[in-house]
# Entry
Amino acid sequence: MLERPSAGERAVIVQLDFGRDDIDEQVEEVRLLAESAGAEVCSVVFGRRNSPDPATFAGKGKVQEIAATLAASDAGLVIFNHGLSPAQERNLERELKCRVVDRTSLILDIFALRAQSAEGKLQVELAQLEHLATRLVRGWTHLERQKGGIGLRGPGEKQLETDRRLLGNRVKLLKDRLVKLERQRGVQRKARSRGDVLNVSLVGYTNAGKSTLFNALTHAGVYAADKLFATLDTTSRKLWLENAGHIVISDTVGFIRDLPHELVAAFHATLEATAEADLLLHVVDAANPARDDQMSEVSKVLAEIGALDVPQITVLNKQDLTGLPAAAERDEYGRICRVRVSAASGEGLPLLRQALAEQAVEKAQRLEAQRARPSVEQSPIIRESLNDTGTPQ
# Structure
């Protein structure tokens, strides 16, 4: 049976240029991804192509360069900052004699490493299995052969078909479990939405400082680190605001460029809470040169989960690294729409609390107006058209 090569912790990154102008930012991001997965990045191999090579994605000459870099750096893992087909992955491993991982597999591995709750682990496993399902047909050709020999003759089903059937059964089981958990979450969300409490969700690009900001506001003590996807499981806490009372604020998983569709689908139940929030705090790393692109990527994911129309306040975090003072900007309606803060030092947090308090008061006033509005039965026009029995005349 053909086995995939084992992987070491020393890695070589491969970044090919297909005409984009943000190569440096892409390399820095994949370097952070690799380090978040526990790899030690030894070297980066660059290349320029008009289109991917069908067989090895990088081309024969570039594969030879990667092999030489592997030997020189004593590395045992190659990370492509691109999506590879099963055939390309298999061909590269055959040529390089080491494990080859693409961007999607790397992100899935980080999610598996970070998942803590039972629901988070189920979601990650589902995403991994659905990713694996697309790679069974051409990824492992030895599975296409029917087993033979004494004691190994099957009832007529190829090994590939057996693996696909077993994988499908596991996927169905995971989806059923997640549906039950999603129903429980739905009941909890409905209970919260029926109340007068403002529901706020933190969203943003991974490593923008959402968890640090969450801790600074709520003193929750959730795990926060200078790593990509440090937070996977949604955490909610009550926050007391002067002149506004309690609100509920939730810390959510971060987004990233080219977030695997399998993850978006698997984490749909978790991300659904974002779409049902009253307000989104879009946390942005103000010191990152690629912040505009990161904001665009977050908007893409919000659109995919149906949360793009939820009101937002942009929180420009890490302002202490930009040299700009803490400040708040208002839109044409007088609402605070942008706040510059530092979650690490606490600068600007009073301005953010003020923005949240204003939103909470506005929601309370809106609900009070709805309650004071007469119902259809109580409307004078309708009452005049009703007789004593309560039926229209």
